[in-house]
Design a protein that fits this description.
This protein is mostly helical and 327 residues long. It contains 14 helices and no strands. The protein starts with a helix and ends with a helix. The relative contact order is 0.07.
């Protein structure tokens, strides 16, 4: 039964491998034709930007052109490797280990499988080779371990790093020459040659008068005096807090001898004015006088109200007596 299983598995591996390789080859040809049209359109747009003086936009778009060209070149190499492996599937099937002459082609296909999303057939080939040669074989290739056998051009073309400035300038010159443009590349060359400082960690070099201020002051003074004595370092806490000097008496051991010691506070006038929240004496007198006057007015109003009530009560009594006499 084991012999039959081996024969059956061999036939299944060969059939699946041939199918995936054939599909990958045909898909690569279709994608290459599509990318050719896209590259022509993108290069034409960059030529228009250069013609209208929009060089900053052209510098950004040229990176995408280089990326598409690298993918196109990687697909061309993968197509040759797929055809090479397809012609030697019987050799792969008959041997347990990976043949030496096919190691570069198989390793390049396994390495490019997760990096070429447009070619799902390469992922199926990667799984087939993992079953055939083991997961350790595939992981060594994916991690680019020593003697992995991956083609150097495949690694460079499928890299995600930004292209260098020289390459971008070269492609822009080729596009300008291709479309017959008289383009001055001096400004773009100077822009690509600039070294941009990484400002995430803060400025590393102090320029201008700030850099020479401290050394000039130090040199003008006595050389024997240390720089720290001339310019004492003051922390932000010392700048914000007012200067307060406190004197405390020694605490005796017995409770009867404990006396409140004198406390002397040397506080600055501006700080004392902020700390003293008591109202001034004249303000208290004015408020007292106003309260007395309002109390006197309330008393007078109460007296008038009482007199009016007495008058009304007397009038009501007189009216009641007159009505009784008439009856």
């Amino acid at each position: 039964m084991s012999l039959l299983n081996q024969l059956f598995n061999r036939g299944v591996f060969a059939g699946k491998c041939k199918t995936c390789l054939s599909l990958a080859i045909s898909r690569i040809k279709l994608l290459q034709n599509k990318r050719d049209l896209q590259l022509k359109h993108m290069r034409k747009e960059i030529a228009q930007f250069l013609q209208t003086g929009q060089e900053p936009i052209a510098r950004i778009r040229v990176e995408h052109v280089i990326r598409e060209q690298n993918i196109w070149a990687a697909y061309e190499i993968l197509e040759l490797f797929c055809e090479f492996v397809l012609a030697r599937v019987p050799i792969i099937e008959s041997q347990k280990e990976c043949p030496v002459e096919l190691r570069e082609a198989i390793a390049s296909i396994i390495f490019a499988a997760p990096r070429c999303s447009d070619l799902p057939d390469l992922l199926q080939l990667k799984n087939l080779f993992a079953v055939k040669y083991g997961k350790e074989f595939v992981s060594a290739i994916s991690e680019l371990r020593p003697d992995s056998g991956v083609n150097r051009s495949i690694i460079e073309k499928l890299a995600v790093s930004a292209p260098p400035g020289e390459l971008k300038l070269k492609v822009m010159k080729e596009i300008a020459k291709e479309h017959g443009l008289d383009w001055d590349s001096s400004s773009t060359a100077s822009e690509f040659s600039k070294t941009h400082e990484d400002l995430l960690g803060g400025p590393k070099v102090v320029h201008g008068a700030a850099a020479s201020q401290a050394p000039s002051q130090y040199s003008s003074s006595n050389p024997s005096t240390p720089y720290g004595a001339l310019h004492p370092v003051v922390s932000p806490v010392e700048k914000q807090e007012p200067e307060c000097h406190h004197t405390f008496t020694r605490i005796s051991n017995s409770a009867s001898d404990i006396k409140p010691g004198p406390k002397n506070f040397d506080v600055k006038p501006e700080v004392a004015s902020k700390l003293d929240t008591r109202p001034p004496p004249w303000d208290v007198l004015e408020k007292a006088r106003a309260a007395i006057a309002s109390a006197e007015r309330a008393t007078a109003a109460a007296r008038v109200a009482a007199e009016l009530a007495n008058v009304n009560l007397g009038a009501m009594k007189l009216e009641g007596g007159g009505q009784a006499s008439e009856c």
